[in-house]
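BUG-270 | component: ligand-complex export | severity: low

The export step for S-adenosylmethionine jobs runs without errors, but we want the raw record kept on the ticket for reference. Input record follows.
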Amino acid sequence: MSLLKRLNYKNRKYYDDDFDWENYTDDSYHRRLKNDIESKFLTIAGPDDLTFDRSTGILSTKDRGIHPNHSAILEVIGQLQPETVHEIGCGAGDHVANANIVFPDIQTSGSDRGDSQIALAQKRHPDLSDTFGVLDATMPYSRFWPRADLVYSQAVIMHVHTAVSHFVALSNMFAMANKYVFLMENLQCHNFVSDIQNLHDGGHTSWETMYIYQFDGSTGARGVLLSKEKLNYPALTSDAELRKGLKFSKRRIKRSEQDSERGIFGTKIC
Ligand SMILES: C[S@@+](CC[C@H](N)C(=O)[O-])C[C@H]1O[C@@H](n2cnc3c(N)ncnc32)[C@H](O)[C@@H]1O
């Protein structure tokens, strides 16, 4: 190896997540929740605040609206009617709590890699304290992790950029899900469609069959819905299709490409 190559090798880029999750609640999450979300939207719903109409598949709010992403999560749950739902990276736990209020017959739970995020969820939702627990989705799969019909994340995988850990987290979400995986993420931050298709084709999902759909919530948020069985939603074959009409950031797309390139999906070995 030439001297220049050796120097470059030692200086090769270290990829990292967007935040330090150990200090995330104190550093920014608590403040962002208050200033950016709670100042504009309803975050913790009371019994009559939110209503899901099964005939239209639409969530409506009594007074204050909830964030479009949060509304789409509840609409996915309402439309799919799973028996059990688990949120990866649940942070303050509000989506788990709201799902519990709107769909009392559906068993809901949430996990997060940060102790302080789980402590915040338990403080905000003391009645649901036992349903929250620590789980790092980028660790190798654990047989002690919960399984659910629907496993989803909101604003989690989009921030994960260390080595191949977003692939690991996605693969684990499939392993935890009996029927569906839903991603409510910034759709430029990873090449979700091609990364997931590659994971599946390379045997890194536990499902034999997988269908990729676009899910548009009634208030404008867009997510990716993965299902073991065929469903009646718009099918996706590329990230370009998924990103149609969304705002574009060259920097984010470039980082998505770099993240995708680190995936090695191997060959079948007999
Ligand atoms: C932007 S916050 C979103 C929190 C919550 N989903 C929400 O919508 O308010 C990202 C969350 O993902 C969690 N997280 C990051 N990496 C994770 C991992 N590998 N496994 C589980 N949770 C993770 C963080 O601790 C943090 O709570």
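Assignee comment: Attached the raw record above. The pocket of S-adenosylmethionine is lined by residues 21, 24, 88-92, 112-114, 117, 135-138, 154-156, 159-160, 169 (CB under 6 Å).
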